[in-house]
């Protein structure tokens, strides 16, 4: 670029064919961010809400987020799960302030409007006015209909104990949305067993939300950035692995089987993170016990576009919920879980292996860090572009992980939907 | 009623711990714990709902050493300074223990983080829930539980709290 070209052109165009170069401005523009919210989070996409195990009883509710909209997941008195927007129909308050609880209805404290757990407005104070000295003062007009002022209801899909929702009532089924390939890996984790929530971890990452989807569609980095993955063979270029996408390239599964680790010149020579002599002082950190439901692979990382990542890394299992706030930041909420039939040993093992993940994890802490640094580079030079040419320019499933094909696939889908 | 000598020893333990955490002298961090000592950093929401997940759950001094190795050798991160402000500890109880006495104590803490080229910000706020025993080498932690209020980790936590 010559010095005379603008760093901040008013209407930059993605002129290149294909998606092996993504302009930095795809991560820095507020107008694109709002378009993403509308086209990716608020229509045509099922977004992650939570787990059924978080609201086991009638009246149980828990706040969640779709894109940047606060919603409430609630189990009503019939036992059905509803998701409603946390915005009072009267004056717009985000009325539900507790993160979770149990109640028989919702109400907004400001003027005490009251809603059922299905989101229907049940009553408003002084609807018929107030009687004073034989006269009725005020009240709602005669044509005021309760049924026209309910909470915004989302369409809900549950599968295997996981709750998804959409503001778009015309959306395809959840199963069609995932497609059969990704549905298989979803069902591998959520095969009907009762889930047991182990707890939460929350971090705010100062980077564009797409970078987190890309991080989990990028099998090129783990054996390089993450010492634990390269040194102990948990995830690296010489592992037996597969990359699979849905037909539209929006979702993906990275499937890997742990190798022997140790020194294989081709994949570790010159790799700064590889520590040949590293030994754990406490072997429980990697006390891996294979589970039958893995069906072989020791790790499957599934990205469900745009809102969630499903992690199975050896015995550690979690959902990771992407909650954007503006183009340059997102909250990343981890829900770790196990299964109701876990032995006490497996329960403990999942908790100890969780040390690898999350905002302080031996592995995951650096993912948040590098995302922050990418965003800083994007903001300072938005006309530059990333280079996603590992494995060529094509998009397709592979039987190795030396490729950025999944990110190219995601941007092919993004360009189509975003019309960029 | 706790005698002054014991209280003074607890005060020393707390201030030494904070000094080591703030001076980046990571190899000294495990030495505050007995061999079977436990260090946990846990969000308050999990603690209060009896959910066992921690941000870090280091279940032995050996595991704490593994964390030190991680901080020094395996993690890539933005370097930062940290500064612990630890409140006056409360001694909750002193009970007999197979290795002498077990002291249960708590204290509030705030950790301020300063990244290069950046202002200083509150990084993590919470309290320590401790079990301490007297050893030949002075007071050591049987367990140090850091329960933090901070709802959002500002990207990552690398160094010990
Ligand atoms: Fe990573």
Walk me through the topology.
The complex is a heterodimer of chains A (420) and B (161).
Chain A: H1 30-41, E1 47-51, E2 60-66, E3 69-75, E4 81-85, E5 100-102, E6 106-108, E7 113-115, E8 121-123, E9 130-132, E10 135-137, E11 155-159, E12 162-166, H2 174-189, E13 195-205, H3 210-215, H4 222-225, H5 227-231, E14 240-245, E15 252-257, H6 265-268, E16 299-304, E17 308-313, E18 316-324, E19 330-339, H7 344-353, H8 365-380, H9 405-418
Antiparallel strand pairs in A: 1-12, 2-3, 2-5, 3-4, 6-7, 7-8, 9-10, 11-12, 13-19, 14-15, 15-16, 16-17, 17-18, 18-19
Chain B: H1 4-22, E1 33-43, H2 44-48, E2 56-58, H3 61-74, E3 80-86, E4 90-97, E5 100-115, E6 120-135, E7 138-148, E8 153-154
Parallel strand pairs in B: 1-7
Antiparallel strand pairs in B: 1-2, 3-5, 4-5, 5-6, 6-7
The structure holds fe (ii) ion.
Fe (ii) ion binds at residues 215, 221-222, 225-226, 367 of chain A.
In short:
With 420 residues, chain A is an alpha+beta fold. In chain A, 21% of the residues lie in helices and 25% in strands.
Overview of this protein structure:
The complex is a heterodimer of chains A (420) and B (161). Chain A has helices at residues 30-41, 174-189, 210-215, 222-225, 227-231, 265-268, 344-353, 365-380, 405-418; strands spanning 47-51, 60-66, 69-75, 81-85, 100-102, 106-108, 113-115, 121-123, 130-132, 135-137, 155-159, 162-166, 195-205, 240-245, 252-257, 299-304, 308-313, 316-324, 330-339. By secondary structure, chain A is α+β, with helices and mostly antiparallel strands. Chain A has a seven-stranded antiparallel β-sheet, with helices on both faces. A four-stranded antiparallel β-sheet of chain A has the order 4-3-2-5, with no helix packed on it. In chain A, strand 6 and strand 7 (113-115) form a beta hairpin. In chain B, strands 1, 2, 3, 4, 5, 6 and 7 form a seven-stranded mixed β-sheet that branches. In chain B, strand 5 (100-115) and strand 6 form a beta hairpin. At the A-B interface, strand 13 and helix 8 of A face strand 2, helix 3 and strand 8 of B. The structure holds fe (ii) ion.
């Amino acid at each position: 670029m010559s010095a005379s070209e603008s760093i901040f052109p008013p209407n930059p165009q993605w002129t290149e064919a294909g998606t092996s170069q993504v302009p930095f401005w795809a991560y820095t523009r507020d107008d694109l961010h709002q378009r993403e919210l509308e086209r990716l989070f608020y229509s045509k996409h099922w977004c992650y809400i939570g787990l059924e195990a978080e609201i086991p009883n009638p009246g149980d509710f828990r706040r969640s987020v779709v894109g940047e909209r606060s919603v409430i997941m609630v189990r009503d008195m019939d036992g059905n799960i509803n998701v409603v927007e946390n915005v009072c129909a009267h004056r717009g308050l985000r009325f539900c302030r507790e993160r979770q609880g149990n109640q028989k209805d919702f109400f907004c404290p400001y003027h005490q409007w009251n809603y059922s757990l299905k989101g229907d407005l049940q009553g408003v104070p002084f609807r018929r006015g107030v009687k004073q000295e034989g006269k009725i003062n005020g009240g709602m007009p005669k044509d005021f209909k309760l049924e026209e002022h309910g909470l915004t209801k989302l369409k809900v899909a549950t599968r295997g104990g996981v709750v998804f929702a959409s503001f778009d009532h015309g959306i395809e089924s959840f199963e069609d949305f995932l497609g059969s390939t990704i549905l298989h890996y979803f069902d591998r984790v959520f095969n009907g067993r009762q889930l047991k929530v182990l707890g939460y971890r929350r971090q705010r990452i100062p980077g564009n939300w797409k970078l987190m989807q890309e991080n989990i569609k990028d099998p090129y980095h783990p054996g390089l950035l993450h010492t634990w993955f390269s040194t102990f063979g948990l995830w690296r270029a010489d592992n037996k692995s597969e990359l699979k996408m849905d037909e539209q390239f929006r979702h993906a599964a990275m499937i890997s089987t742990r190798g022997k680790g140790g020194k294989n010149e081709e994949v570790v020579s010159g790799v700064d993170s590889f520590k040949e002599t590293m030994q754990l002082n406490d072997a429980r950190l990697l006390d891996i016990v294979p589970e039958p439901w893995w069906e072989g692979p020791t790790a499957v990382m599934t990205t469900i576009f745009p809102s969630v990542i499903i992690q199975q890394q050896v015995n550690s299992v979690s959902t990771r919920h992407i909650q954007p706030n503006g183009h340059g930041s997102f909250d990343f909420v981890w829900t770790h879980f196990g299964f109701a039939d876990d032995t006490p040993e497996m329960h403990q093992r999942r908790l100890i292996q969780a040390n690898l993940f999350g905002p302080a994890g031996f592995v995951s802490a650096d993912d948040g860090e590098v995302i922050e640094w990418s965003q800083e580079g994007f903001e300072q030079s938005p006309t530059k572009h990333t280079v996603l040419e590992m494995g060529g320019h094509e998009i397709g499933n592979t039987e190795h992980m030396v490729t950025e094909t999944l990110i190219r696939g995601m941007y092919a889908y993004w360009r189509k939907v975003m019309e960029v | 009623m706790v005698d002054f000598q014991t209280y003074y020893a607890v005060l020393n333990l707390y201030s030494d711990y904070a000094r080591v955490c703030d001076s980046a002298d990571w190899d000294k961090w495990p030495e505050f714990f007995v061999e079977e000592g436990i260090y946990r950093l846990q969000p308050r929401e999990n603690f209060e709902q009896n959910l066992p997940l921690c941000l870090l759950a280091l279940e032995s001094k050996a595991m704490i050493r593994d964390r030190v190795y991680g901080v020094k050798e395996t993690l890539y991160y933005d370097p930062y300074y940290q500064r612990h402000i630890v409140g006056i500890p409360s001694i909750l109880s002193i009970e007999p223990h197979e290795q002498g006495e077990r002291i249960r104590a708590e204290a509030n803490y705030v950790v301020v983080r300063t990244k290069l080229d950046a202002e200083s910000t509150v990084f993590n706020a919470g309290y320590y829930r401790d079990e301490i025993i007297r050893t030949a080498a002075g007071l050591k932690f049987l367990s140090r539980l850091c329960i933090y209020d901070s709802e959002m980790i500002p990207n990552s936590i690398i160094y010990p709290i």
